[in-house]
Design a protein that fits this description.
Blueprint: E1 12-21, E2 26-35, E3 40-45, E4 50-57, E5 71-74, E6 77-84, H1 87-93, E7 98-104, H2 109-122, E8 126-133, H3 137-144, H4 153-161, E9 165-172, H5 175-183, H6 198-204, H7 207-210, E10 213-214, H8 219-230, E11 246-250, H9 252-256, H10 260-268, E12 272-280, H11 284-290, H12 301-308, E13 313-320, H13 327-335, H14 340-346, H15 351-355, E14 364-366, H16 373-383
Antiparallel strand pairs: 1-2, 1-6, 2-3, 3-4, 5-6, 7-9, 7-10, 8-9, 11-13, 11-14, 12-13
């Protein structure tokens, strides 16, 4: 049985966090404290030596949101957690909240993306970041440099040039060791020290899944790969089609509730395909801009903004496998009415009926008006860069 993360003795987690103050063009440093008993956040400005935010309950945040490398939204401000603030937090979390990296190849993810993510989530591995990428000979050469110990570079180069791949940052207990064990499952290289759960074994007993992913074999290369895909600029993000496509956003509450993989299974098994993807933590200002057309029209405007700004979301460009169909119309009908209660009565097979619970927590956003599809896609995939 896998070890469970134990609480700190004093019931709190303490981190060093940074917030970039756009107007002043400076980065400010804070001591961020998360109180486990009531899910409250406290912020102390280290430069001014003053309390920036008194202990305030943040019910949308949980202990699993806090680890080095995570991004936390507090009343519209994005705080980057850069280090542990004390040894107790470090000793409590460092053992359990490891960062990992995995790259899904183009021959694997169109069929198994949802199942793959569902299995990881079921095994307490969080999806912290992700993006769809398109390699060129130049960028794949840059990525594969100094990887002779990890992979057969020439084979992987051809696989990555064959079509779009999807990169993910993973967070979990021994996550890199687990992913390596998964790729070796059922082979003579199978791990004798890492025991895979039955659900992991079931997924990775398929050769097309096992050989359809790349993962680094050392902590050093994990750090390099995460930096390559999520920090450095290599012009590898897959561009949108912008033609007969539409926008879908898997909302933060769906991701926190562990529904991401299940929602993707539903989308990909219903005749849709994903042609661009990125995961974002949107600021409150960005969320207000994105939802501007609903201001003064939808009574739930403010809580809708708060929900979208409360955590990481997954943004997708969606099109139809059947190119003769209208992607916007088909996907909007597939999502169902905005109110899940109405969806359960009138459209029980829709996404919002299956995964939503209220108008605000309705699982997914989809573009309402066809004329807005290009604008919304450009905002998410171009402007927010």
């Amino acid at each position: 049985m896998r070890a469970q993360m134990q609480p700190t003795q004093n019931g709190r987690l303490a981190f060093l966090a940074e917030w970039y103050h756009t107007e002043a063009a400076i980065t400010r440093s804070f001591l961020l404290t998360f109180h486990l008993s009531d899910n409250a956040v406290e912020l102390f400005d280290q430069r001014s030596k003053k309390t920036f935010l008194r202990r305030t309950k943040m019910p949308e945040l949980t202990r699993r949101d806090f680890f080095v490398g995570s991004k936390i939204n507090v009343f519209g401000r994005q705080f980057d957690i850069v280090d542990y603030a004390d040894d107790m937090t470090r000793n409590t979390l460092a053992k359990y909240r490891k960062r990992g990296f995995v790259l899904l190849k183009t021959n694997m993810w169109p069929k198994y993306l949802g199942d793959f993510l569902s299995t990881l989530i079921y095994n307490k591995i969080n999806i912290n970041n992700g993006t769809m990428v398109q390699f060129t000979p130049k960028t794949v050469t840059e990525f594969l440099s100094n990887k002779e110990d990890d992979v057969q570079a020439s084979v992987l180069m051809n696989e990555l040039l064959a079509g779009p791949a999807i990169s993910f940052e993973l967070i979990g207990d021994n996550v890199s060791e687990i992913m390596i064990a998964c790729t070796n499952y059922g082979t003579e290289k199978a791990s004798t020290t890492i025991g895979l759960s039955p659900s992991m074994q079931k997924l990775f007993e398929r050769e097309e899944v096992r050989y359809g992913i790349y993962c680094p074999h050392s902590e050093e290369n994990v750090a390099k790969d995460l930096k390559f895909f999520f920090e450095e600029k290599h012009n590898i993000i897959k561009n949108c089609l912008f033609t007969n496509s539409t926008l879908a956003i898997v909302k933060p509450h769906s991701i926190k509730d562990g529904l991401l993989g299940q929602i993707l299974v539903e989308i990909l098994s219903a005749g849709f395909k994903i042609t661009a993807m990125r995961m974002l933590l949107m600021s409150r200002v960005n969320c207000e801009e994105f939802y501007e057309i609903y201001r003064g029209i939808v009574p739930e405007f403010i809580p809708m903004v708060a929900q979208l700004a409360s955590g990481i979301c997954m943004c997708l460009e969606v099109s139809c496998e059947d190119t003769e169909k209208n992607a916007h119309q088909e996907f909007r009908e597939f999502c169902g009415p905005m109110d899940p209660e109405i969806a359960k009565l009138l459209r029980p097979h829709t996404l919002r009926s299956k995964f939503g619970s209220s108008k605000v927590l309705n699982a997914v956003h989809c573009t309402d008006l066809e004329d807005d599809t290009r604008l919304e896609l450009q905002y998410i995939f171009k402007i927010l860069d």
